[in-house]
Amino acid sequence: MKKIRSGVYGLNALMDGGVNEHTTTVVIGSSGAGKTTFATQFLRRGLEENEDAIFITLDETPEQIIKEASLMGWEDVENYMEEGTMVFVDAGGKQFSQFIQKELAEFVDDWAGHKARIVIDPLTPVLWSVKEKYEQRELVSFLLRETRKIGTVLCTLEEHGTVGDLSGPEIVIPMYLADNVIHLRYASHEHPERRELKIVKCRSSKHSRFWHPYGIMKGAGLYIRRKENDTTKMVVEPDLTALLKEKLEASGKGNASRLSGKALTNILRTTELLSREPFSDITPEELIHLILEEYGLNED
Ligand SMILES: Nc1ncnc2c1ncn2[C@@H]1O[C@H](COP(=O)(O)OP(=O)(O)OP(=O)(O)O)[C@@H](O)[C@H]1O
Ligand SMILES: [Mg+2]
User: Fold this and answer.
1) Are both 245 and 220 inside the same structural domain?
2) Alpha helices in 84-132 (DSSP H)
3) 191 & 65 share domain
4) Closest Cα partner for 101 from 138, 153, 151, 156?
């Protein structure tokens, strides 16, 4: 199976190289865990590789998603929309179950032959749109099967109640049906400073089985660290651009030229944005390493 890069810094290495193409991934997390940010990163990474992006939003309007992306420093989302490579489907307030049953097949036909990444954020209301568990399972199963035909699918799931309790039917059903399951553990009230990620399942791949701390920063979005390191009281504002140049040169001049123009522009823009951010839980070197790894520029 072909692996595609997730766009989330540090994640591919935990998933045996990335996400398998034409599979479905479920990202579970409580409110504020970073699900929408994760989903946007995943789509932008595909756009860099000239894949298409379909963002099916059920909770927020496309305008809100675009605004949040801009606040992250990802203004390019608007350009992608203008050129038509990124489309939003505003499914909020709609009878989504009816859309799935009546219009989805046609939608998939329209996109046939495209190589796309599809996000459904969040999937939870889809499950709530029908009553019985067997109906929920049928509906989600059909949705995932159809959308997978046109690309690689990522759905987010809301985690309600106790953080870490994944036993409710609205979580269990999609977990069973998906190929990959990623859990973002975040207790906003008890431990707002602590965010951890685990790969719960990753079909046909040798994946990490541990919890990994992750953070969110403007410019980078989510990044996943390999392990806890001692960054107590570390707050630095580094010159990341200089650091990036140094690392790029060390990785060999030919390597960077393999990147798409969009990818290179994004790496430079990301480092520029990060240079203005305080670093408190990851070292600048570590983050630069993760960014270059995403683009295959670290492999010695
Ligand atoms: N510009 C930023 N800089 C740093 N962190 C940010 C920035 N913007 C958002 N965040 C972090 O990202 C989190 C929100 O992420 P996101 O909206 O992706 O979460 P979510 O899981 O989709 O939440 P919800 O369930 O409410 O939709 C915020 O709680 C905040 O900590
Ligand atoms: Mg969200």
Assistant:
1) no
2) 96-98, 104-110, 124-128
3) yes
4) 138
Ligand 1 centre from 32 Cα, in Å? 5
* 56 and 108 inside one domain: yes
Q: Are residues 246 and 218 in the same domain?
A: no
Pick the residue whose CA is nearest to atom 15 on ligand 1. Answer: 34
Alpha helices (H) along the chain:
35-48, 62-71, 76-83, 96-98, 104-110, 124-128, 133-148, 169-177, 240-250, 253-256, 261-274, 284-294
Residues 101 and 219 in one domain: yes
In terms of residue numbers, what domain contains 103? Answer: 3-224
Question: Ligand 1 center to residue 102 CA distance, Å?
Answer: 33
CATH of the domain at 180: 3.40.50.300
For the full predicted model, state whether its pTM sits above 0.85: yes
Mutate to test the pocket of ligand 1, among 27, 37, 42, 77 (most ligand atoms within 8 A of CB): 37
Q: Which bound ligand lies closest to the C-alpha atom of 70? A: 1
* pLDDT by 10s per residue, the chain, length 300: 899 999 999 999 999 999 999 999 999 999 999 999 999 999 999 999 999 999 999 999 999 999 999 999 999 999 999 999 999 999 876 678 888 988 999 999 999 999 999 999 999 999 999 999 999 999 999 999 999 999 999 999 999 988 899 999 899 999 999 999 999 999 999 999 999 999 999 999 999 999 999 999 999 999 999 876 555 556 666 788 888 888 888 877 667 788 999 999 999 999 999 999 888 889 888 999 999 999 998 755
* 182: nearest Cα among 220, 155, 152: 155
Q: For residues 211 and 250, state if they share a domain.
A: no
Lookup: tokens for 176: 């069973």
Q: Is there a contact between 20 and 203 (Cβ–Cβ < 8 Å)?
A: yes
Q: Which atom of ligand 1 is nearest to the CA of 29?
A: 21
